[in-house]
Write a structure and sequence with these properties.
Blueprint (H helix, E strand, L loop, with lengths): L8 E2 H8 L3 H10 L6 E2 L5 E3 L1 H16 L4 H11 L1 H9 L2 H17 L8 E3 L5 E3 L30 H24 L1
Antiparallel strand pairs: 1-3, 2-3, 4-5
Helix pairs in contact: 3-5, 4-5, 5-6
């Protein structure tokens, strides 16, 4: 007697339908948190129809398309369960819709253009404006004529300015890389 398409399936039925060993299904449950069969007394598993569809998609990506487990996990995290189900069923319009949505999201998160580099009166490069004015004590200015970076001038020496500018460029590059990862 055949079950209705909406009926729950046992692990042996799912394993037979997908031509997979039962231990592989149990292993995939540990690697893909999206697979959540209902467990009854004695640990007997019952898979919902949406679980079976997701497993079909995972199987297709791992066995037919050559993805690794980490690759499929990334696809699930980035695109969601429905994308992997669509891949498994060969639903090309759904796959293309997810790809378009993802491209739009990436475009919205595009890296902003690099800041405009200006020069001060000494010809030193400046990038942006400081959000807070540095205290004179932080830079050692005003403690005494001999202790300041440029004694009595109230300004940073060229070497200290260059070091701070280099640190600023490094921080901007780090921010750019972090924005790309997000």
């Amino acid at each position: 007697m055949d079950k209705s398409p909406d009926a729950f399936r046992t692990i042996s039925e799912v394993a037979e339908d997908l031509d997979l060993p039962q231990h592989v299904l149990r292993f995939w449950e540990t690697r893909f948190t999206q697979i959540k069969p209902m467990k009854r007394g004695g640990g007997r598993r019952y898979y919902r129809p949406q679980d079976v569809e997701l497993i079909k998609g995972i199987r297709h990506m791992l066995y037919d398309q050559g993805y690794t487990i980490k690759g499929v996990q990334r696809m699930l995290r980035d695109n969601g369960n429905q994308f992997v189900v669509s891949v498994g069923t060969g639903d090309v319009p759904a796959i293309e819709a997810v790809a378009r949505r993802r491209a739009a999201e990436e475009e919205a998160m595009a890296v902003p253009p690099a800041p405009v580099i200006e020069r001060d009166e000494d010809g030193e490069m400046l990038v942006g404006e400081a959000k807070a004015k540095p205290s004179r004590r932080f830079f050692g200015i005003g403690k005494g004529e001999e202790e300041g970076p440029v004694a009595g001038s109230g300004k940073l020496s060229r070497d200290n300015r260059a070091l701070l500018q280099e640190a600023l460029f490094d921080l901007l590059e780090c921010k750019r890389l972090l924005d790309q990862v997000r």
